Each structure stands twice: as structure tokens, then as C-alpha cells.
Amino acid sequence: MPPLAQAFFAETDNQPEAAGDILDIVDSALYEAAVSVDPSAMVRSQLVIRLIPDDPADEVRGWASKEVQERIAATLCKQVSLALKRSVPSTELGLVGVGEGSVVLQFAPRVAYEPSADVLVDSSEADAAVQEVLNLNGMFESEAPAGQIMARYRQKSELLKATRSLIVDGLDACRVTMGVRWFNSSGTERDASLTGRARRHALAIFTRKEVEEPITVQGYISGIDLSGSITLVDALPGDRNRRLVAMSEEEVSGFKDLLGRWTQLDVCESRDVDEVGLRGKARYQFVRLTPHEAMLPGALAAQTSP
């Protein structure tokens, strides 16, 4: 370490374990200094993301591929956006800096100075959203049971989907570890990490298993594919529930004369469901045609009566 750097760290209690840690220490020192000068003043909130590849040979200082930007950085910002109680321009996270030492990306809410007071707009809403995201991500790092995660976030399925995208499609696919440091406007810091342990836990939790259930569906036959399916819609355009029901070519031929008619079918509905309740798109397999005359609109029933 150069003499000036040695002298600097000799006066602090923080000794960097790696070259990249120096930037973290300096960032924290600047942040602490800003708060100590005027504890009543609000400082600019900032989210610092550090990405470290599993393979050191893949590390390029300060460089992030397009894939990393889209799969990790953008998805983390989406998590925060989904965690907000209300979306306002001042809480939107945007990139404000890129540093070296692995890949360091710096984000901050789009806050501005109030002309009359010359202070930053309160970013407590963004702070609450970031804290919730870090808490959720931390549950994967600590290997929390799937039932515990589901109980806490069952009403926030979109946030869970973004978390799956971040950890599975982002961190695991790109083979990187993510460290996050949040500096909020009240002068406190929060650290969090998503390591290989979180990635393994997420892969297990988000692995889907097929679940089948016999159900009855009904609607107008709006389309017939002779290669093996019919399309069923049960309402007017703009408020319709559309289902594609798979069947054999022989079964399809029996529906040729029912195009445009109201029909009721017994089908097998199958979905892919993971351990926190995220459900994939439903698939329908034809079982049999069921009686439906009583469900026909009066005019159509009259037309089809013998």
C-alpha cells in the first residue's frame, strides 16, 4: 500500500481487506462528515451496489456488461419501485456514478433542492422501500423458510417475482455476488449482501412443480385449431377470460359445428407453482364435453331447441 494510503488508514479503525474496500471506507467517511457538520441537515440518499464475479478472471475494474445492467442493476431498482407505497418522481432511483474495484454502481433517488428552504426533499419513502427490499433479500441470504417468506409477502407477488429475477435470472445467471450499501437521508447506513448461499436458497425456493386440478370451464368457442386446440372466451372483448384448451385432432373435429356457440367443458388445469406461491400460466387439457343447455342465453337456447 502506498505511504499516503498507509498514513490515512493508520489514523482510522478501518483496515481494508481488499482494494475495493477502500472506496467503501471513503464513502462512509464522507457521508459521516456531511452529517457531523450539520446533523439537522438532510444529506443525499445513495444506494451503492458492488458486484464481484465468482471467477476473479472475469473481473474487469469498473466495467459492467449490458447483461449485468439489465438483469441485476435494473431489477434491483424495480424491486425498490415495487416496494414503494406510492410512486412519485422524487423516489425514482437513477444511476449517479460508476466506480472501480469490482463493479461499483451508485444510485440515488431523484430528489432536488427546495428553492425556498435550500434543503433536500424528504426521501423517507424511498428509504422505507429500500429497507423493505434489503429485508426481503436478506431473508434469502439467511436462508429463511419458504413459508416465512410467503407469509410475509403473499400479497406482494410482483415484488417476489422481481426478487426471483434479481437472484436467479441475474446474480446466479451472471455468477456474481452482490453487496449493497444504503446511505439514507437521516444519516445512517445499512449493509446487505446476496452471496452464493442466497442464490442456492432462491434456486430451491423458486423451483416450480406442476400442480394439476380438474375444473369446469365455459364460454363461447371463438377459434378452432385443427392441429389440436380450441379457444374459449367467456365475456365481451375488453373484459374477457380467454383459455386455450388442448385436445387431440380427433377431438377437435367434433367441435367444428360449435364455433361461436356457448360450451361447457371439463378440463384438467395445470400450473407450475413454486414454494412461495408464485404461479405460472395455466394450461388446459380437454377431458370431456359437459351438459350446458341450462347455461345458454335464452335466445340461443331457443334457437338450439328441437
What does this structure look like?
This protein has 306 residues and is of the alpha+beta class. The protein folds into two domains: 20-29 and 43-206, no CATH class; 209-304, OB fold (Dihydrolipoamide Acetyltransferase, E2P), CATH 2.40.50. Helices cover 37% and strands 27% of the residues. The chain is built from nine helices and ten strands. The strands form two sheets. Strands 2-3-1-4-5 form a five-stranded antiparallel sheet. A five-stranded mixed barrel has the order 6-7-8-10-9. A hairpin with a 3-residue loop joins strand 2 and strand 3. Helix 4 crosses helix 7 and helix 6 crosses helix 7 (196-206). The longest helix is centred in the N-terminal third of the chain and has 19 residues, at 19-37. The chain is elongated. The N and C termini lie far apart (96 Å). Residues 16-20, 117-121 and 294-306 have low confidence and may be disordered.
Q: TL;DR of this structure?
A:
By secondary structure, the protein is α+β, with helices and mostly antiparallel strands. The chain contains nine helices and ten strands.
What topology does this entry show?
Elements: H1 3-10, H2 19-37, E1 46-53, H3 66-83, E2 93-99, E3 103-109, H4 124-141, H5 146-153, H6 157-174, E4 176-183, E5 189-194, H7 196-206, E6 209-225, E7 229-233, E8 242-246, H8 249-253, E9 262-273, E10 283-289, H9 298-304
Parallel strand pairs: 8-10
Antiparallel strand pairs: 1-3, 1-4, 2-3, 4-5, 6-7, 6-9, 7-8, 9-10
Helix pairs in contact: 3-4, 3-6, 4-7, 6-7
